[in-house]
């Protein structure tokens, strides 16, 4: 008996069977399972009951069209998302496009004049370099690079130094027995390691020991330093203690570091670094532990934050099994995975020695992915050049911040403070920020942190003058180039300005508190998206790395002078496992960035061992006491903890 249905859909509808049953029967009429036995010599006769067609041609064509339509719609949607910054959805976008085009035409008109100026100063700089080389002979080590010069331009009220602080712990019982000489042991260990690792006949980083000089308007390096390891690594100043006290309080350490952080470096501030070891420990009464502070002070012209943190960890800590180390800011630092990859690459190199010339040429031909990446890179550069004139106009027209922590003139006195997420306590600040970020797709770790900081600043402003500004301008540093596996002391960073809305924090009695927090984070994220979709970082990087070094000091000071921003914020991911000195872990690692221009407040964020470490350095012209500076950090942490409470309610 023949089946009336001729397609799978018709047959399945008539028989009321599932697709999987039909598959199991090989699309045949229900019957015995298994292959049909065929006797020798038998001829295959078409079975009219067999369902040969899964789809009819018309149905197959319709299904193909639907799939093709959905595929194209998905691709078009993705293209629109990737090029959303090019869409003109309003009259403001049209005006912006016209403004960018007109400023670019203006740049083309001035380009011959500007190029002439740059060429003249480049020739002048070359002549000055030749004169200095003739004057100092073999001791001349070259003019400072562009980004290094930016930090060499400083004044006595704000010197361009990064201060990195950490603690080494010791049980109180060891100290009270009189057997402890922890600070002397640390000092001796650091001197030995710096001498053996960095000051031997072959110096892996000779830039560390060069002097920074300025003559004829240009900064240059020379190796005429006569400093010894004892000059670089010394004891920290001591604080007077009351009768009967043996240990200092954290408030006293803050006051001491406030005095030290802007102090001259050795050799009349021509050297680039020093290490100070504290002799007076802090007492942790809860754990009955003593904490000895270590302060690593380094001039920013030596390198950026990533390079300096790597230098600190590679130069002074114990050389342990590489697998103990995790990524430092996503860099392969003594990482076993990187070593294995290098070994595989070396083995592959030996295997490819016998390859023919044609095979080697074929491997060098770029793939379609490489060509697409190169095309995107070229388009990005062209777009940056096209938008650069509009960027300069925007910066010149940007209004200067007006609030109580924006300085017009800085003093030669600083305040520092910090908050450490203790590894011995059950806090989860990093986890709270990450969970909040995941609940709002498209937001970033920094967006959530800036939102928490915003509420703390709002409280601080309200306590100072009763009102707070609607927003302020922050400087956000960012690294442009990827760090190489081998440490290089150089500055490969850029900066950009971002608007930060100042809004009240979470009100736990507000029924709409979840919506209010979401709205605040998305407001910060909108400014962040605008910045990241722009060419600001790349333009500033070109200026800092290629152009600043061309001009003499007097002109460069005027070019770099900026009064727009209120504070700078630096976020640096640190190692996930804590390094050790003489078997003792470095605890509470944090750093402080220098004030530049009239930006009198710098806030730092470091994730160290999975915990959050915050630091603040401010000029006393705007924040007078360490307690006021500490209140800004404390308010930020309190807001993060309130975010955690909201997460627990979800």
TrEMBL record:
GO cellular component: plasma membrane
GO process terms (BP): triglyceride biosynthetic process
Keywords linked to the UniProt accession: Membrane, Transmembrane, Transmembrane helix
Top-level taxon of origin: Eukaryota
GO molecular function, a single term: O-acyltransferase activity
The keyword Transmembrane helix belongs to this UniProt entry's keyword annotation: yes
Keyword check for Thylakoid: no
Annotated O-acyltransferase WSD1 C-terminal domain residues: 516-628
Stretches that traverse the bilayer: 53-72, 97-124
Matches recorded under PANTHER family: O-ACYLTRANSFERASE (WSD1-LIKE) FAMILY PROTEIN, WAX ESTER SYNTHASE_DIACYLGLYCEROL ACYLTRANSFERASE 4-RELATED
Protein's name according to its UniProt entry: O-acyltransferase WSD1 C-terminal domain-containing protein
Naturally occurring in which organism (per UniProt): Anopheles quadriannulatus
């Amino acid at each position: 008996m023949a089946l009336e249905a001729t397609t799978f859909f018709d047959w399945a509808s008539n028989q009321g069977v599932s697709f999987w049953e039909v598959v199991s029967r090989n699309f045949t009429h229900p019957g015995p399972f298994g292959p049909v036995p065929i006797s020798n010599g038998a001829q295959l006769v078409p079975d009219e009951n067999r369902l040969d067609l899964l789809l009819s041609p018309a149905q197959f064509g319709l299904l193909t069209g639907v799939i093709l339509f959905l595929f194209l719609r998905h691709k078009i949607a993705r293209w629109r998302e990737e090029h959303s910054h090019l869409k003109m959805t309003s009259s403001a976008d049209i005006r912006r496009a016209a403004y960018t085009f007109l400023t670019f035409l203006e740049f083309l008109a001035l380009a011959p004049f500007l190029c002439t100026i740059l060429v003249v100063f480049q020739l002048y700089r070359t002549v000055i370099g030749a004169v200095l080389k003739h004057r100092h002979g073999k001791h001349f080590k070259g003019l400072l690079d562009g980004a290094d010069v930016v930090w060499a331009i400083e004044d006595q009220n704000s010197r361009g130094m990064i201060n990195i602080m950490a603690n080494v712990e010791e049980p109180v019982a060891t100290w009270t027995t009189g057997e402890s000489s922890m600070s002397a042991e640390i000092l001796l260990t650091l001197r030995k390691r710096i001498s053996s690792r960095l000051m031997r006949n072959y110096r892996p980083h000779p830039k560390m020991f060069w002097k920074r000089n300025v003559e004829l308007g240009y900064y240059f390096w020379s190796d005429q330093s006569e400093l010894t390891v004892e000059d670089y690594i010394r004891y920290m100043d001591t604080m007077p203690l009351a009768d009967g006290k043996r240990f200092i309080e954290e408030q006293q350490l803050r006051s001491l570091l406030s005095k030290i952080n802007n102090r001259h470096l050795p050799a009349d501030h021509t050297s680039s670094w020093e290490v100070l070891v504290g002799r007076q420990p802090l007492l942790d009464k809860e754990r009955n532990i003593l904490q000895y502070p270590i302060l690593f002070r380094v001039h920013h012209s030596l390198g950026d934050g990533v390079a300096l943190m790597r230098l600190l960890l590679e130069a002074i800590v114990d050389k342990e099994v590489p697998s103990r180390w995790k990524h430092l800011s996503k860099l392969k630092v003594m990482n076993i995975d990187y070593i294995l990859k290098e070994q595989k690459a070396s083995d592959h190199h030996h295997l490819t020695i016998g390859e023919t010339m044609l095979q080697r040429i074929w491997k060098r031909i770029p793939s379609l992915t490489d060509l697409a990446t190169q095309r995107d890179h070229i388009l990005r550069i062209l777009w940056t050049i096209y938008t650069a004139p509009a960027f300069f106009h925007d910066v010149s027209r940007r209004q200067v911040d007006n609030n109580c922590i924006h300085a017009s003139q800085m003093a030669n006195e600083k305040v520092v403070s910090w908050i450490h997420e203790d590894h011995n306590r059950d806090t989860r600040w990093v986890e709270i920020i990450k969970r909040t970020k995941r609940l709002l797709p498209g937001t970033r770790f920094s967006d959530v942190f800036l939102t928490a900081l915003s509420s703390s600043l709002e409280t601080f402003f309200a306590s100072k003058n009763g009102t707070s500004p609607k927003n302020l301008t922050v400087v956000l540093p960012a690294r442009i180039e990827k760090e190489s596996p081998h440490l290089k002391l150089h500055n490969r960073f850029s900066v950009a300005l971002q608007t930060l809305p100042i809004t009240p924090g979470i009100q736990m009695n507000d029924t709409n508190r979840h919506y209010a927090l979401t709205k605040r984070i998305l407001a910060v994220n909108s400014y962040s998206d605008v910045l990241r979709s722009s060419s600001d970082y790349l333009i500033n990087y070109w200026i800092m790395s290629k152009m600043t070094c061309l001009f003499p000091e007097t002109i460069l000071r005027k070019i770099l002078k900026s009064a727009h921003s209120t504070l700078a914020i630096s976020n640096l991911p640190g190692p996930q496992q804590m390094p050790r000195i003489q078997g003792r872990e470095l605890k509470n690692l944090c750093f402080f960035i220098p004030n530049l221009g009239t930006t009198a407040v710098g806030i730092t964020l470091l994730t160290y061992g999975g915990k959050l470490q915050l630091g603040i350095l401010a000029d006393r012209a705007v924040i007078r006491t360490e307690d006021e500076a500490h209140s800004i950090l404390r308010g930020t942490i309190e807001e993060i903890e309130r975010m955690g409470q909201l997460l627990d309610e979800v």
